[in-house]
Amino acid sequence: MRTLITGATGFIGSILVDSLLARDQQKQNRANSIYCLVRRTSSLAWLEKLPVEFVHGDLFSDAALLPVLPEVSQVIHLAGVTKARTEAEYFRANGEATHHLLQLCARHASKLQRFVYVSSQAAAGPSADGHLITEEETPRPISIYGRSKLAGEAACQKFCRELPITIIRPPAVYGPREKDIYQYFKQVKMGVRLRLGRRERQASMIHAQDLVNGILLASEHPAAVGETYFITNPQPYDWHELGQALAAAMQKKTVSLTVPEFVAPVLAAFSELGAKITGKPALLNFDKIRELRQYYWVCSGEKAKQQLGFVPAISIQDGLRMTWQWYRENGWL
């Protein structure tokens, strides 16, 4: 089995690589190879000491990809952007790049057994009334990011008759090495739990290790070909519950502070101004605010449970405690 992983330097991708290597070692399978597509400028901090082969380039680098694709039996496509300066950058990285990779696979990956595209819950959009949305519902993304990930899904649908494709839509993902929800950990450590507005917001979540287990299961299950799955914990959580669970895991006394909703666009404006000055994508932009203001980012994992037998192994309490311990042991907190 030869696997090509894009986005392997990210926190989910690096955990995926670790899991693949651990599985092969457990099975004493030395015939497997892992190719990691990496940019020359990418940090290899999580990969440099691992027995993997680096393919230097990006998703448009035909010269880098063409030598390995004929030998690849599996592609797990994680690469993309969650923050960008312009709409065009989102669609190039998440939509056009996915289409190009699929096109190369259709032409050159003659041994391909599965192509897994890791999309996002943002491609489906939020729930309007709090019901757990399913894969059968019409996608209604409300952000540029969500629409660009849906463009990647559309590319998959275009090639579904030529390639064995599975689409995964993760919700909010937390765990070791993650840097966005990590900001909330920092707040709780300071004794503060911030909430946007007075009305509670609910979100589905998944620990990165559970997500990786779901991806690997879907990558091999025969029923997953041509299907789309939410890989998520069955129960959504509101931010008050999450804050309390995290404070308990950290053994930290906290106070809850409400940030008025009208403040969020102001913060986004300053963040985007700073991005224009530095030339780097804004951490908090108007697109992200549009997502944060939704009340129900909730989805159902029932299809993955019924068709694949996927059940998350890590509870939110255990996951938060494990993540907190990792941040502390590695000097992040």
Low-confidence stretches: none
Strand order of the largest sheet: 3-2-1-4-5-6-11
Average pLDDT, all residues: 91
Count of DSSP strands: 14
Helix content: 40-55%
Indicate the multimeric state. Answer: single chain
CATH class of the domain at 2-174 and 205-234 and 297-313: Alpha Beta
Number of helices: 12
What report would you give on this structure?
This protein is an alpha/beta fold and 333 residues long. The chain has a domain at 2-174 and 205-234 and 297-313: 3-Layer(aba) Sandwich (Rossmann fold), CATH 3.40.50. 41% of the residues lie in helices and 16% in strands. The protein has 12 helices and 14 strands. The chain has helices at residues 11-26, 62-65, 87-108, 121-124, 144-158, 182-189, 208-220, 239-250, 263-278, 286-292, 302-308, 316-329, and strands at residues 2-6, 33-38, 53-56, 74-77, 114-118, 165-169, 172-174, 192-196, 202-203, 205-207, 228-230, 237-238, 255-259, 296-297. The strands form 4 sheets. The chain has a 7-stranded parallel beta sheet with strand order 3-2-1-4-5-6-11, sandwiched between helices. The two termini are 39 Å apart.
Top keywords for this entry?
Rossmann fold, 333 residues, 41% helix, alpha/beta, three-stranded mixed sheet, seven-stranded parallel sheet
Summarize the structure.
The chain has 333 residues and is α/β, with parallel strands linked by helices.
